[in-house]
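Recap from last week: sequence in, structure out.
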Amino acid sequence: MLHLNYGGIEKQVTTLANNLIDEYDIEIISLYDILGKSFYELDKRIKVRYIFPYGPNKKELKEAIKKVKIIDFLKELKKSIKMIYTKYFGIRKITKDLQTDILISTRIEFAKQIKRNDIITVSQEHSYINTKRYASKVRHSFKNIRYLVVMTKKAAKVYEEWLQSKAKRPKIIVIPNMINKTDEISSLNSKQIVSAGRLEDVKDFPSLIKVFERVHKKHNDWKLKIIGDGSKKEELKKLISDLKLEDAVLLKGRLDEKEIIDEFCDSSIFVLTSKSESFSLVIAEAMSCALPCVSFDIDVGPREIITDDEDGFLIAERSVIKMEEKINLLIESTVRRHEMGENARKNVARFYPDSIKQMWLSLLK
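Predicted structure tokens:
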């Protein structure tokens, strides 16, 4: 893994490891130690080994340049080069002599470096970037991997097409992400909409805020909460201010797993406006709290979780007007909201550990 900090891949891997520890001895090798521990709770039986006792040091490099500290700059530059080299070239040496039966990679640049024919090699591909450049990267990265695990059927189809010309290629297996079952559910009576994700371009929170502005004109007693942190935080704050929504749109920042569930249970609708997703863990987690979900219908992810018009709505062509209409429908119809919430809770059970764990055990055994 790259690190054990906050994030979808990190949450998925730690959840999976916790559920497989009764069957296997597990060690997680993490390139960076950013927090001094895993952000997500790990079973005490799981071993963790860090390659570097620190993480990316862009901040330290900029600080050294700003203060014209040449020696500090050179030290930080050396650390940075070492980390970059290890990430893209040094994993092969680290994994070459590992005493293990099964080796699982979580990143394409790591999979490319694994060259072990004596053990079972698996790569989890959490990214889905449908471009010629990424397709080329895929064709050159998995020739020494035995099994490639993707999250959705659509992703599997695309990867099959990308890899079909390669004589040596992995077997592609579809295993969705796993979510922990929660006994806490929303009453669906609060006047709150919620969303969650990294505050980055790919999540397109400006579109969400603009949709909510339209909803708020009709339902000015409703609020929107956005959970997450990222580089676009200040831009989003400015947009909220420009639209005069400071009292209605709240940026909650980074929350832990329990805090996120609490926010979901204190909300009545979940909305996703991402430009792309590999799976969309947050939709599944929101549905487990009985939230009806409204999402733009993007290439992969939401359409394999949400059943349109049954437990949520899929909005075609990123239509802001259509999304506003569906959110208003859920706000105005308590009966429909509760029906969809109940369906969401039932339908998402296929992603609980009992089901997904068996898929992994079938593969690994």
